[in-house]
Sequence to fold (415 residues):
Amino acid sequence: MRTWSYEIRALTLLSLGFALVGLDRWIIAPLLPEMMRDLHLSYQDAGNAIGVLGVVWGVSSTLLGRVSDSIGRRRVLIPALLGFSVLSGLSGLVRSAGSLLLIRGTMGAMEGAYLPASIAANAEASPARRRGLNQGIQLCMFALFGLGFGPLIAAALLSATGSWRWVFAMVAIPGLIVAAGISLTVSEPEHLQGDAQLRPAIAWRNLFRSRNVVVAMAAIVCAMSCVFVLAGMLPVYLTNFVHLPAADIAMVLSAIGFGGGGGQFLLNWLSDFAGRRNTMLLCFVGAFLSLWLFGHAHSDVPWLFLTLLSCSAFSFGVVSMTTGPIATEAVPNILTASAVGIISGAGEIFGGGIAPSAAGWVAEHLGIDKVLWVAFVGLGVGIMVSMFLVETAPRRLVSQPLRAAPIPSDVSTNR
Fold:
């Protein structure tokens, strides 16, 4: 029996862990100018260092979500948290582009493993009526600390230590502390206790028999095609097309982190009351309209900030809903982490990999002013995709089944 005390302790530790995932992943961005000079990196090397983590994250999340459903949450959570923390510290020791890519890719494997296991553990610690709220709290930490506070933390540590190498070493320490806390606090759910050979299992391929898993995979690709295009291309767009000075660009771009963090929390919470389907539709429409206003804001810095804040909030809201309550309500509890992993993996590989490449092609051949088209297409398709979602929010259901659109029971013994 889960208690309120356990819920709060588990939520706090899992959320802090995901904050460190965001921080360790994105703190490299503000440090890249110093790193490029010291390591003689090209722009392509810098882009690869960021991109390789996302691609490996997607593969790892897809595979290790299933592993977590087989061997338990703790056996994935603790090694993953320790692993990416140590690797983040080792990033300060790199001497070449090759060693940087190797470490960043391995970090992606560890961080990709943490996501599905931690979201599943969050769902198992949370009562159904607070599932969206609690998962929103955890998921918002990624954008808030990775893209919001991350640049500020990097700047402060760089100023204090004088070396980007020491910055990586210092941000590794909190992860070791949180890993110890999780090892002492988070316990396995009842269905993962006892002999693993005696547990019922469902073939991984049967995830695709859940309609909401398929819809969520499509929706997160649409949302992340907007998120990653904005995060990756807006600095160039604001510099070469809008012609903003560096200080104004930094302020505008901070809206991605703070808007994304707020959206992941508030919109996940809203979905507990308004429903998953209605909230997803609201998010895609809101993001589309916000992006249109952003594209017509010209050089008005406050308006650019506010419209980007809104677009990021709605876009990240979809990301948090699809990998949070929608994923965990779409399948039986023995496949919770598997569903989170495969949805997250689709978003990272396709939304985080292909969409930025498409945006680069558009900028190269059609002009930097057309780069927002890729995000518009993703959000427009997302509006249509959201229509196919089956409602699963417990508060919105007349009878209270927690797993709408489940995988049929006749495959429950297949591997």
